[in-house]
Amino acid sequence: MAAISSSFLSFSSPYLHRQTTDTKLTQYYQTKPPKTTKLTIASLGSDIRKEEVVIVGAGIAGLSTAVSLHRLGVRSVVLEQAESLRTGGTSLTLFKNGWKVLDTMGVGDELRSQYLEIQGMVIKTEAGRELRSFTFKEVDQTQEVRAVERRTLLETLAKQLPVDSICFSSKLARIERHKDGETLLELVNGTRISSKVVIGCDGIRSSVAKWMGFSEPNYVGYCAFRGLADYPDGQPFGQRVNYIYGQGIRAGYVPVSPTKVYWFVCFNSPSPGPKITDPIVLKKQAKQLIKKWPSDELQNIVDATPDDTIIRTPLVDRWLWPGFSPPASLGGAVLVGDAWHPMTPNLGQGACCALEDAVVLVQKLAPALEAGPMAIEDALRSYQNERWPRIFPMTVRANVVGAVLQLENPVVCAVRDNVLVPKLIRLGPMLEHTNFEFEPLQQTRV
Ligand SMILES: Cc1cc2nc3c(=O)[nH]c(=O)nc-3n(C[C@H](O)[C@H](O)[C@H](O)COP(=O)(O)OP(=O)(O)OC[C@H]3O[C@@H](n4cnc5c(N)ncnc54)[C@H](O)[C@@H]3O)c2cc1C
Q1: pLDDT tens for residues 62-102?
Q2: Which top-rank group of organisms is this from (predicted)?
Q3: Is there a domain that residue 443 lies in?
Q4: Residue at 182 is within a domain
Q5: Which of 54, 76, 81, 228 to mutate to test the pocket of ligand 1 (most atoms within 8 A of CB)?
Q6: E runs forming strands in 309-406
Q7: Fewest CB atoms within 10 Å of the CB: 30, 134, 274, 415?
């Protein structure tokens, strides 16, 4: 348990987190309010604004939690550090578990109408030899795979919320548990909020998770370039995922919509390396990695990528070891999505799991809100107990799959490419993790 003893109103010590030896962390928590901030929450001077539910972060986890609460008639406030929803970025592949949750939130069909259903997958070696191909429905008639643009997913979720539910330019600076059971939040702009429930949806570098005692996520030894190629006159690819397995490098591309194609290149790197944002450099580096591959197809897809959709990300995860990892909740504060369980993208499940988290949490939390702090804490513990057995194995599995796919040794790669992938892997068990049952949300508000 994180015991916070300093006064919430005192600025004399770095108090967001009990471990304050990290210089960067200390600097972060002592950040002064920016001179110009667009405030959408009124700054209340010495007053503390009271809220029932505050969500930190307007990513997929935060917005899907807010929409689920809204569907059950519960108002929440979403604090987002950025000035707007994330507009750049690429796409996410969502499997049937993700789509089921989007359906219960009432946004599935709106998104489906914009994105292609991916029928299957083909896996090739870097030399272009086909190792395996299959269709998803061969194995599971109920499977649904589509890639959606992150921007559109966020906008579609945000549209479901009452006006002013999302407070932009509202970066959480510190958090403290109050003796009345509420959680106190202070934003970088000085706004103070006391809330019965705080839901930390602030992603892999979550401040809320740090305060709860979670360690930084671990770098797994490889990075990914990603982009969203644009074909205004129509993209020429069939509706399947294309994977290319090399030695220490793998790549892929996925048709997203009639005009957009998502691609990635993952490469081994002993360290995460410097942050690079120049799209020309990023494109050059991505193309360099695959330049010896005989087919030009992926090079051409990289060339067709607008500058604002190309990024390079060091990949990380955090394993929630039983007995070692802190609980997912502390008093009335709880974690959802990457803030709790960052996982590598090898199963395409990070966002799907954030969506699952949201609906499970909200089903338990909404009825407990009226019943008081004990019932809320019980609901948050019950959420953790239900989600942990799903999340922990998924995180480990995603990591192991990534490790196999990033192999560099030519002999081991030959075994992978000639035995493991073509002969041993069965698609059914490979996609079993996309089975997910839950109680649909009773839509009391639309
Ligand atoms: C290369 C790659 C490919 C992926 N592909 C897939 C895929 O195909 N399918 C899939 O399901 N998943 C995929 N994922 C995983 C997916 O992107 C994440 O799981 C998902 O984005 C998590 O959403 P989130 O809302 O928890 O976190 P985020 O999307 O990181 O959102 C966190 C939000 O909190 C805000 N925030 C942070 N700190 C503060 C603060 N102090 N105060 C206020 N706001 C704050 C941030 O600005 C941000 O808006 C992929 C991930 C990577 C890296």
Answers
A1: 999 999 999 999 999 999 999 999 877 799 999 999 999 99
A2: Eukaryota
A3: no
A4: yes
A5: 81
A6: 311-317, 329-330, 333-335
A7: 274
